[in-house]
Amino acid sequence: MQGPVKAIGLMSGTSLDGVDVALIETDGESVAAFGPDMTLAYDAADRALLIQALEEARGLTDRDARPGILAEAERRLTERHAQALAAYFEAYPEHRDVAAIGFHGQTVLHRPDIRLTVQIGDGPALARAAHALTDAPGPALVYDLRAADVAAGGQGAPLVPAYHRALARGLDLPGPLLVLNLGGVANITYLDGEAEPVACDTGPANALIDDFMKARTGMPLDRDGTAAAAGRVDEGALARLLDHPFFARRPPKSLDRNDFREWVAAHGELDAMSVEDGAAILTALTAACVGAVLAHLPRRPATLIAAGGGARNPTLLRFLRARLGIAVLTADEVGWSGDALEAQAFAFLAVRALKGLPLSFPTTTGVPLPMPGGVVLPPHPAA
Q1: Is 225 annotated as ligand-binding?
Q2: Which residue has the higher pLDDT, 288 or 16?
């Protein structure tokens, strides 16, 4: 593979919003061009099925097992990804010559402490769908991108730092730079010149807020942080939540979507709070988690770039600025796509996987050596 190629990334994140589709042109080292992106939103039935799958997966010990609802969830998820690709190529037929597709799947369990991470999604089935939608010979499809890292003793997350580093080379901002992805879980990439990036999950983000709002109001999220903005942060309860041992651990470290659910239930006293106060404390927790990781970084960052769904929450951005005391910009403000960034990253990682380049590093996931990864399904067998 010589020079930049067209690559598509498909991302279904811990917020369970839908399938993000994004195209870039890349050689796996830098980004030559950005293509269009779109999202196929999950409906209520999709979200309910995936939430059931998350519950069912808590008892998994075999990453290939699909008991009960997990098999149905995997079929539905793969269908939705195929539909997202079909919608994308209908809207942008000029990109049917795509060379690579990165398919993240849906994480339903992440337990690197026992070397187990499970992403549902049928790679071969999606590859067949992709070949039917694209120009011959069709794209190579890369999936299961976390497994090799976890099997080697790494955290398996976050995987996006290699892409953040490629993007950051085009910026002229005061450093060190902190890139913060606010999905269901929050994660950071710390970038300081040519030093190796440092990365980790920092704590809960949208997942706890979304689950709280769904349980208390029936709404899937706190849109624009409106409820949190009207609430009061109980600093005593927040301090109890920050006493979780995860925050004292140095990077690399990672989380499962539901790791903090029981802790918050036991120590947050949210049941006694109004909707507004509960949303406020969970939003403040997300910001405070980022603040807690600063002490573990080589130097204090000068600039933070926020991406992901949480970057559209002005209340969360306000809390971040107040608690961190550093400049906070959004991905869109620096010319990146805040909504498509993770999908773009998996397009980038797919090309790196095809070239045998590492996806993760000792400073980003704790893996012993720079680690390639991903299962590669080649272009259509007839090619």
Answers
A1: no
A2: 288
Tell me the domains of the chain and their CATH numbers: 5-156+342-377 (3.30.420.40), 161-334 (3.30.420.40)
| pLDDT over 80 (residue 337) | yes
363 labeled part of a ligand binding site: no
User: Is position 153 annotated in a ligand binding site?
Assistant: no
180 pLDDT exceeds 70? Answer: yes
Was 117 annotated as part of a binding site?
no
Tell me the chain's radius of gyration from C-alpha atoms: 20
Whether residue 356 is annotated as binding a ligand: the answer is no
Confidence at 338, pLDDT banded by 50, 70, 90: confident
The per-residue pLDDT for 1 is 64
Q: Is 184 annotated as a binding residue?
A: no
**According to the annotation, is 85 in a ligand binding site?**
no
Q: Is 15 annotated as a binding residue?
A: yes
pLDDT at 16: 87
383 confidence band (pLDDT: 50, 70, 90): very low
